[in-house]
Specification:
heterodimer; A: 464 residues; alpha+beta; 2 domains; twelve-stranded mixed sheet; two-stranded antiparallel sheet; 16 helices; 18 strands; B: 230 residues; alpha/beta; five-stranded parallel sheet; four-stranded antiparallel sheet; 7 helices; globular
């Protein structure tokens, strides 16, 4: 028998009032924990995900944030297209007539997805697995290998496709034939989460969906169904939720013909006026180019060169992401103020609920006093009661928060690109529980003072 | 064991000061079993509370179990009560949410401590009063006689030198009351405990070794005529 067991028993006697008060604490703590968890994991994932993405080249008419969010974090639709020529110029280490040495410039095109999870399909070349580096090393494979589709393969296929497209547009017949999809390029590499969620393995086939499953206009591309030849090891980044397939496959998907090539429309002219113009391989449209400048000067030159370029711009994730996180942080702080207010309300509620029971508990307190209980012990029992209620409520709040992360993780990932790891616990959660327990104990001070001042003789006399 | 000299306790009632209890002199020896009688309003319960240290007299000397309780602070009186005095009330005053054994242990918690052998002692006491199969029942699940026996066990859990009882049989039928009183007096006698019992019942009073009419302890009040001496 301990003082705490008396406090616990008191909470059980008033189960409904205790439960409702605890619920307020659960909500407040859960809200607070959810905000902190989101903020912490968002920051962690975002910071951890930008590795390797030194610079991202994207369309000029999009914002740099849009380009970064879509390319690195799979958020939103691709904000536009840039020509393959931009990638060519970067790969040639020369943009706008200046030397811009890079380790790699990897073209990407996206827009399709897989399954109801809407895992994004990213069409690219094999350098994504041989040159792209995160934390100093290439993407690790858990199983299998990369697909084989090089820059040269892209150019060769693109040239053939451009010749066929030119014939189609101009009405000439040079005998060019549309390259065909074949098993060599119908291969793909999937991320760790794709494997986990869809239960896929090597040799299984994934079929891209145009757009997002369930949205108007979405349809399967069975002709581009790709065999899985590689599964990436977990990276704890949006790469885990990505399906990589050869850019050639993307270009040859039925219905992509019209949008594969970008044709400039002269100012003041109707788009129809260029619909019969010939096209070339460098007009192939990409959603982004991943670039890793070799040195600081290269980065500077890349920046200034693209400022003058009309068709594309370069985004710097290392600058954009922290600014974005600051904005998220501001929102999180605003939400935390709300959570504090709810917590404050819950504290007042504890105080009121326990205070209101003091009159009916006068006899019980007087009995304990008559048994030899000191005022300090009565005080401790009531403060413990408030503290216990807060402790249990806050603990439950944190647990609810983690289960909410489990249940709503996919929705959050879809909206923010951040996969919430529901089993990831932080030291701050311990402090949160202790802090809320402390607040609850403080809320119990007023009723504790009232309880400890109970007059034994009067209160016992009332019971006769 | 108990020695009172010139004790007065009064309350304010509006502009008036009402003397609730006044004792010129009273001595009770160790192991004595004493009945305190008197008309309503003579201050029997107040005197019991003064002896227990729940109330502090306005003046006078109160020595209980070798300690001048009138000179102690409230906290020290609480400690003294918890360690040396067991109390039994007319309404039993068990805490409803707790089982019989837990109620007994509450006495230990606020007395000499509920750790160590306290639970064994509580079980032993409950067995001695015939409640071995009722230990884990709540008071609402027990008969009046059983509840009173639990209250007696609670009063005895700290092995106190003094047991104070305030109309302990008032809520029971005579047979049950007598059985409970027999039991308590037997235990008290076995363990040489001092017992002071407030009662209105002359029969119960007659079973104690000595009867003290509170009115005889005050010069300003007439004796009730129920016998006894100071």
């Amino acid at each position: 028998m301990r003082l705490a067991s008396i406090s616990l028993r008191n909470l059980r006697i008033r189960a409904v009032a205790s439960g409702l008060t605890a619920l307020a604490i659960v909500v407040a703590t859960g809200l607070y924990a959810a905000i902190l968890m989101m903020a912490e994991q968002t920051e962690e994932r975002y910071k951890g995900s930008v590795g390797g993405f030194g610079a991202v080249v994207g369309p000029k008419d999009a914002s740099q944030l849009e380009i970064v969010l879509n390319t690195i974090f799979n958020i939103g639709d691709a904000p536009g297209l840039i020509k393959l020529s931009a990638c060519r110029d970067i790969r040639a280490n020369r943009v706008g007539g200046r030397r811009t040495p890079v380790h790699y410039a990897i073209p990407q095109a996206r827009g399709d997805s897989v399954s109801s999870y809407n895992f994004p399909v990213v069409a690219t070349i094999d350098e994504m697995f041989s040159k792209f580096k995160r934390g100093g090393s290439t993407l690790p494979f858990a199983e299998g290998r990369a697909f084989e589709f090089s820059w040269d393969d892209l150019i060769e296929l693109g040239k053939g496709l451009a010749a066929w497209e030119t014939d189609r547009r101009t009405g000439e017949d040079t005998g060019a034939e549309r390259p065909l999809l074949n098993d060599k390029i119908r291969e793909c590499v999937i991320g760790h989460r794709v494997k986990q969620k869809l239960g896929l393995g090597l040799g299984d086939v994934v079929t891209p969906v145009h757009g997002k499953a369930g949205e108007p206009g979405a349809h399967d591309h069975p002709e581009a169904a790709c065999k899985i030849v590689g599964i990436l090891a977990p990276t704890n980044s949006p790469l885990d939720s990505t399906i990589f397939l050869p850019l050639g496959t993307h270009l040859l998907i039925d219905g992509h013909e019209g949008g594969v090539f970008l044709v400039d429309v002269p100012a003041g002219k109707n788009p129809d006026s260029v619909k019969n113009d010939p096209v070339n391989v460098w007009q192939i449209g990409l959603t982004a180019v991943l670039v890793d400048p070799k040195d600081h000067f290269g980065a500077q030159f890349l920046r200034t060169s693209f400022q003058r370029r009309p068709d594309a711009q370069v985004s710097w994730p290392a600058t954009i992401v922290p600014a974005f996180l600051r904005d998220i942080g501001n929102v999180a702080e605003a939400l935390m103020i709300v959570a504090w207010l709810v917590l404050f309300g819950a504290g007042l509620s504890i105080s009121a609920v326990i205070y209101n029971t003091m009159n009916e508990r006068r006899r019980e307190i007087a009995i304990m006093r008559s048994l030899g209980a000191r005022r300090t012990q009565i005080f401790a029992i009531i403060v413990l009661e408030a503290g216990l209620l807060s402790f249990l409520g806050s603990l439950l709040g944190v647990i609810v928060c983690h289960f909410a992360a489990l249940g709503l993780g996919e929705l959050v990932e879809d909206r923010t690109g951040v996969y919430l790891e529901w089993l990831q616990f932080g030291l701050w959660e311990l402090w949160l529980v202790l802090g809320v327990t402390g607040i609850g104990a403080i809320a119990g001070l007023l009723p504790a003072v009232k309880g400890s001042l109970t007059q034994v003789g009067d209160s016992l006399a009332q019971s006769y | 064991m108990i020695r009172l000299r010139d004790v007065v306790k009064s309350y304010r009632q509006g502009d008036r000061e009402v003397v609730a209890c006044a004792v010129d002199a009273l001595e009770i020896g160790a192991g004595e079993q004493v009945a305190l009688i008197g008309r309503s309003g003579t201050g029997k319960t107040t005197l019991l509370h003064i002896l227990a240290g729940i109330l502090k007299p306005d003046r006078g000397e109160v020595e209980v179990v070798g300690q001048r309780v009138d000179e102690l602070s409230e906290g020290a009186r609480d400690c003294h009560r918890g360690r040396h005095i067991g109390m039994v009330y007319q309404t039993f005053n068990l805490l409803q949410p707790f089982t019989a054994v837990e109620n007994v242990l509450l006495g230990a918690l606020f007395g000499k401590g509920a750790g160590g052998g306290a639970k064994l002692r509580a079980v032993d006491l409950l067995e001695r009063v015939g409640l071995a199969d009722r230990m884990h029942h709540r008071p609402s699940e027990l008969s009046v006689g059983q509840v009173q026996r639990v209250a007696i066990c609670r009063a005895l859990i700290n092995d106190p030198e003094l047991v104070l009882m305030d109309e302990p049989l008032g809520n029971q039928d005579k047979t049950t009351g007598n059985q409970v009183l027999d039991l308590l007096l037997q235990i008290a006698s076995d363990d040489n405990k001092t017992v002071v019992m407030v009662t209105h019942d002359p029969e119960s009073a007659a079973r104690m070794q000595r009867t003290v009419d509170l009115a005889t302890l005050r010069a300003d009040l007439e004796p009730t005529g129920a016998g006894g001496e100071a």
